[in-house]
Amino acid sequence: MKHIEILTHILFYSLFLVALIGICAIGYTEYSQTLALIDQAETQLQATMSGPGAIAFQDSNISQSDIIIFRQHLSSILPCFFATIYLYVPVALIIFLIAFATAVAAAYNPFSRIVPIARGIIQLIDSIPLVLWVFLAVIVVFRIFSHPQWGLYFSAFYYPALSLSYGMVLIVIFFQQNKRIISEIRSHNILNGEIVSGVGDVYIIWRMFRFHFAKTIMIRQLIFAFLYVLLFDYCLMYIFEGFRQSGCALTPLTVKAGLFFKRLNYYETIHMNDVANIYSHLHAISFILIVLLALISFFFLFYYFDRKDIIND
Amino acid sequence: MKSRWLIFEILIYLCAFTATLIGFFVIHKPTLWILLAERFFLTMFYTLSSLIFLYFGVKLLVSGIFFIKIKWAGSQWPIHLIIVTIFLMIIIINMFPIVFWIKLTQRPILVPIYLILSNMLLYYFCLHTYREIQDESKKLYIASARFKHANAFDYLKEKRQWVMLNNIRPMFYHLFSFTLFTDTLALADYPTYQGIVGYIFVELKESKSTFSLELLLALIITGLLIYPIKRMLEWPEHQFAMRHNIELK
């Protein structure tokens, strides 16, 4: 019975994950195609601008180019959301899993040999400020991606590697939370009872994850990590255009930040004020996204205050 | 035994520091060293001033919440709803990225305020301190305070102090990291007032494809300068662990 229960849960979670990744991948491919079209339109625009008939182009064809961008952009709103999920959810999951694994290693059995290893990992992450982690990641990533062959092989890991460096500090925070909860469960002698009754360690950890982490803490931590990495990424995009290179998916916030630079570059040469209006709906979408995430975290916070004890979950 | 390890650590640190210093003078001009030191002290000024704001802000807020909670315990007031509303307000203020606040009012004087009001920093520390004190308030010696004709709020005083002291180092690290945005955005028109993080970032931006020795030296110097500050700020954590006989991390 136990094995069937575990198997059904694993199947459910894996199916959910596969479906989510599949949907996001479809959205991502669609969006990358539209992105290529936008690039093509831009290169055409630049080619015409450098030619002799630049002034004539400004007067006659500016509305046509606006329409092209507008059409392409309308078709990319939904894939933008999928790209957001595709980029940040795996990073949030990795952060949570590292934090959970280290917390279990440090607090489940205090006499185990892996306790100093887990503590060492956490102390290594915690003893260096976040910004230095980001700099190190940027140096390493740029060094790898500037290589002609290695850059092609590792292009899929470019953005996740950077995002993981943004959320590095969260591993320590989640580790502390998870460790506190595990030690609280230990103090109620539930784990000792299960160990004495002959249940295996893996099954006990799985049950602990299912009843004490999967319903409340995991979702809250995932949302927090998602929000934190999103905001940090958004901030960095504003000050450093080079973080986005070719082959990287775009999110609503990315497009917004990219537009900021685009406006800076082209504002004096081409008076494309209409582009700002076309892209303005993305501003609204990004704002709604942030508000929704904040509201979700608020409801989970409310749930936290409502509960009396961790054991009664 | 511990004091012996501390002396050993200090010796290693001094050796690394002198080696870096000699390397600096041999490879580069001393002007770069002076520049880096200036930038580091500027960053320290911004970070520590905002740390003072954040420390007393969080302490006042969380103490106020517990004061209300203990004062109104057993009454008909919806205390949980009030607390959740306070946290919601903090989320709403704090959920905007640092770019939002900098774009709103671009003034160099407000750099410490920008650092506090961004990227869920205040929210996280408030929630963390609240949880820690909440766990402590469930203990029997706090619950039995009112039967001893004493105040539970006073009983929690020591815990409140220790929680805040334990939070100093993570707070400092967060603020130090986010000076990147204030250096590059709020102080963009004032290059002489930019901190060391902004300097390293500009170096990184310029030497993106090629390896720069200056960048590496700047990173090493930052690490070496920040290490004694880290050791000083984590002193309360060690004291707390020793006093209550608990493990660190």
Protein described:
The complex is a heterodimer of chains A (313) and B (249). Chain A has one domain (77-312). By secondary structure, chain A is mainly alpha-helical. Chain A has helices at 2-50, 54-60, 62-74, 77-107, 115-126, 130-146, 150-153, 158-166, 168-187, 190-196, 201-213, 217-239, 252-266, 273-306. The mean pLDDT of chain B is 81. Chain B has one domain: MetI-like fold (Orthogonal Bundle). Chain B is flat and about 70 Å long.
Summarize the structure.
The complex is a heterodimer of chains A (313) and B (249). Chain A is an all-alpha fold. Chain A has helices spanning 2-50, 54-60, 62-74, 77-107, 115-126, 130-146, 150-153, 158-166, 168-187, 190-196, 201-213, 217-239, 252-266, 273-306.
Tag the structure with descriptive keywords.
heterodimer; A: 313 residues; mainly alpha; 81% helix; elongated; disordered N terminus; disordered C terminus; B: 249 residues; MetI-like fold; 13 helices; 78% helix; flat
Question: What letter string, H or E per element, gives the SSE order of chain B?
Answer: HHHHHHHHHHHHH
What's the count of strands of chain B? 0
| CATH topology term of chain B | MetI-like fold
Q: On the 0-100 scale, what is the average pLDDT of chain A? A: 67
* Total beta strands of chain A: 0
Radius of gyration of chain B: 22 Å
Helix segment count of chain A?
14
Q: How confident overall, as mean pLDDT of chain B?
A: 81
What are the secondary-structure elements of chain A, in order, as H or E?
HHHHHHHHHHHHHH
Distance between the termini of chain A: 23 Å
Secondary structure: helix percent of chain A: over 70%
How do the strands and helices of this protein lay out in sequence?
The complex is a heterodimer of chains A (313) and B (249).
Chain A (H helix, E strand, L loop, with lengths): L1 H49 L3 H7 L1 H13 L2 H31 L7 H12 L3 H17 L3 H4 L4 H9 L1 H20 L2 H7 L4 H13 L3 H23 L12 H15 L6 H34 L7
Helix pairs in contact in A: 1-3, 1-4, 3-14, 4-5, 4-8, 4-9, 4-12, 5-9, 6-8, 12-13, 12-14, 13-14
Chain B lengths: L1 H26 L2 H42 L7 H16 L3 H7 L6 H6 L4 H17 L2 H4 L8 H4 L1 H10 L1 H19 L9 H11 L6 H21 L1 H10 L5
